[in-house]
Specification:
single chain, binds zinc ion, binds 3-methyl-2-oxobutanoic acid, 3-stranded antiparallel β-sheet, Double Stranded RNA Binding Domain, TIM Barrel, 521 residues, alpha/beta
């Protein structure tokens, strides 16, 4: 086969925020949150949305099913180990998808085969082929990944790929599971595989790079230059350990350097990037670092005098991309105190938020009015936070904040008094603390005694100005299980209480789910 590709090639953007992204400790999302993110990805015209690992738990199954039932314009994918039970479960979850894909995988590196799978190479090939054949009984769109391909033997990889393509895999994905490869090496790997696998022209070559050495995007781009036509990535680069290749960086690199790529991402609506980025960070509580490429708060801020001068004279002096191309300027002030219910509903619909009932709309609208009383200008980010906040109040939450009073005075120990509903009963909790937030957390712990360790407490302003809402993230750990809690309010002490309560509600829920890359259960 030939390693050349035509000028009109487009790169399939496969987003795995809802699957690999969710594997980041504490990044778990509810069904409604996953559907919201999936809708935002669909609006961006992402080709494939990996919605989850259906066999992990009943909740994961239902989330993949809900995404499959909602999304019409993107392919919805479910992950399955190369095991009958996983594939059947994925097939079932995707039953009603407009376009559904099963992504099945098994490890192929010597260390994974020997230590994790305890299987011989020939057994691995046999199981991979069997998995692909079974998956083809549910859908014609089957992806196969040789896990840890980046550390696998080239000849063995060729044998595996040859066999799975023969068995009906339509996409073969090459993961650098542990983020070990360097760009030149990874590009050559893709080139060699396309050259050596006899039936490589029958499948699309995809890549899935992790960021342990900070090279996930560079490796993905090098793979594209060597013929890969699908890139697996996540919003904000969320994902296991150091994360996955960041979708926004891959898309904007290919767009900005179209002079160097023979393939394109013209079908992706890059103006949706900021909206998606903020949605994902708001929902997961994984804040975006200010200097993060494309979506960081400073990415388009040309702060220093010399740069500003250059930009004012001619923007191309220092800008290689336009802020509006990633959707920055669409994040304008949209609503205020006098905006009506209709304007509120319409703007949220534009942001992809649909209300399930009139009651839900009325509750959200009344929170909006409360916020507008405290803050004149309501931006899209405020609206997103408001909806995220409403979604945090799940039906089965055991702990709820009714009201709180906190005193902070020079020379005195701050103290907090919280009125809570816990398991349907009203409880009043008091505590003093080193600061007002500490007093609030101690008061909550005096009721719950969660036995958790606080791993992270962070506050970010959602928009600018002293009347901005503060968005607080709290990360708690107990017995190896990590949860993130979020809360937003114009008062950051109240936002902190909400975030801690959200995290406590999550840790109190039963949370058993299988991890796809652990040895079989
Ligand atoms: O990193 C990895 O190898 C994966 C596979 C399941 C594709 O996430
Ligand atoms: Zn991965």
């Amino acid at each position: 086969m030939s390693n050349s590709s035509s000028k009109s090639d487009s790169i399939i953007i496969f987003d795995t925020t809802l699957r690999d992204g969710e594997q980041s400790p504490g990044a778990s999302m509810t069904l409604d949150e996953k559907v919201r993110i999936a809708r935002a990805l669909e609006r961006m015209h992402v080709d494939v949305i990996e919605a989850g690992f259906p066999i992990a738990s009943q909740g994961d199954f239902e989330s993949v099913q809900a995404v499959a039932n909602t999304i019409k314009d993107s392919t919805v994918c479910g992950l399955a180990r190369a095991l009958d039970k996983d594939i059947q479960r994925a097939g079932e979850a995707l039953k009603n998808a407009n376009a559904g894909r099963i992504h099945t995988f098994i490890a192929t590196s010597p260390i994974h085969m020997k230590q994790k799978l305890r299987m011989e190479p020939d057994q691995v090939i046999e199981q991979a082929v069997k998995a692909v054949r079974l998956a083809r009984q549910f859908t014609d769109d089957v992806e196969f990944s040789p896990e840890d391909a980046g550390r696998s033997d080239l000849d063995f990889l060729c044998r595996v790929l040859d066999a799975v393509i023969d068995a009906g895999a339509t996409t073969v994905n090459i993961p650098d599971t542990v983020g070990y490869n360097l760009p030149d090496q990874f590009g050559k790997l893709i080139y060699s595989l396309r050259e050596k696998v006899s039936n490589s022209d029958k499948a699309i070559f995809s890549v899935h790079c992790h960021n342990d050495l900070g090279l996930a995007v560079a490796n993905s781009l090098s793979a594209v230059m060597n013929g890969a036509r699908q890139v697996e990535c996540t919003i904000n680069g969320l994902g296991e350990r150091a994360g996955n290749a960041s979708l926004e960086e891959v898309v904007m690199a290919v767009r900005t350097r179209k002079d160097l790529f023979t393939a394109n991402v013209n079908h992706i609506d890059s103006t949706q990037i900021i909206n998606c980025s903020r949605l994902v960070s708001g929902i997961t509580g994984f804040a975006v670092q200010p200097n993060k490429a494309i979506v960081g708060a400073n990415a388009f801020a040309h702060e220093s005098g010399i740069h500003q001068d250059g930009v004012l004279k001619n923007r191309e002096t220092y800008e290689i991309m336009r802020a509006e191309d990633v959707g920055l300027t669409t994040n304008r002030m949209v609503l205020g105190k006098h905006s009506g219910r209709n304007a509120f509903k319409t703007r949220l619909a534009e942001l992809g938020v649909e209300f399930k009932s009139e009651d839900e709309l009325n509750t959200a609208f009344s929170s909006f009015k409360d916020l507008a009383d405290k803050k004149h200008e309501i931006y899209d980010d405020d609206l997103q936070a408001l909806v995220t906040e409403a979604n945090l109040e799940t039906e089965n939450e055991r702990l709820r904040l009714v009201s709180m009073k906190v005193c902070s005075e020079t020379g005195e120990k701050p103290n907090a008094e919280l009125t809570l509903m816990f398991d349907g009963k009203e409880v009043v909790a008091h505590s003093t603390g080193g600061g007002p937030v500490d007093a609030v957390f101690k008061a909550l712990e005096s009721v719950i005694n969660s036995g958790t360790e606080l791993l992270l407490y962070s506050v970010n302003n959602i928009t600018s100005g002293t009347d901005a809402q503060g968005e607080v993230t709290v990360r708690l750990e107990r017995g190896g299980r990590i949860v993130n809690g979020q809360g937003a309010d114009t008062d950051i002490v109240i936002a902190s209480a909400k975030a801690y309560i959200n995290a406590l509600n999550k840790i109190m829920e039963p949370g058993e789910r299988a991890h796809p890359q652990a040895a079989d259960v």
